[in-house]
Amino acid sequence: MPPSQAKQVAANDEQIEHTIEYRIGSEAALENSDVEVEAGVARLKGTVNSRSDQVMALTVARSTPGVQRVIDELRLATSPVSSR
Predict the structure, then answer these.
(1) Cα distances (Å, whole numbers) of residue 11 to 29, 40, 49, 50
(2) Strands 41-48 and 69-76, how do they pair?
(3) DSSP string, 2-18
(4) Which of 32, 33, 39, 47 is 20 to 30 Å from 56 by CA-CA measure?
(5) Domain spans of the chain, in order of start
(6) What pLDDT shows up at residue 33?
(7) Per-residue model confidence (pLDDT) at position 37
(8) What's residue 3's pLDDT?
(9) 3-76: what fold?
């Protein structure tokens, strides 16, 4: 890939990353998640409180223009076990 094209891809990835972060950042349940984008591939990392939060984050990433693929590395938070 020519250097000028590589710079354009990197700029697009950065724009996609910011868009996803903005869209999921408005959800308090997703505040412990992180997004990385490389060559149109979005990688979601971090902890979510429920499966529905995970699905929401994945849906947002998949529906973001420019995203070719989504890698799900989100984990469900574990609640502390109470002893009685």
Answers:
(1) 28, 11, 32, 32
(2) parallel
(3) -HHHHHHHHHHHHHHHH
(4) 39
(5) 3-76
(6) 85
(7) 96
(8) 54
(9) Histidine-containing Protein; Chain: A; (3.30.1340)
CA–CA–CA angle 77, 83, 84 (5° rounding): 140
Going residue by residue through the chain (84 aa), what tens digit of pLDDT does each one get? 555 455 455 569 999 999 999 988 877 777 788 999 999 999 999 999 899 999 999 999 999 999 999 999 999 988 654 555
The strand ranges marked E within 1-84 are: 33-38, 41-48, 69-76
Q: How far apart are CA 18 and CA 49, in angstroms?
A: 22
Q: Give residues with Cβ within 8 angstroms of 30, minimum separation 6.
A: 24, 46, 48, 53, 56, 57
**Gap between the Cα atoms of 62 and 60, Å rounded:** 6
The residue whose two tokens read 């996803």 is 20
The answer to whether residues 68 and 9 touch, using CB atoms and an 8 Å cutoff, is no
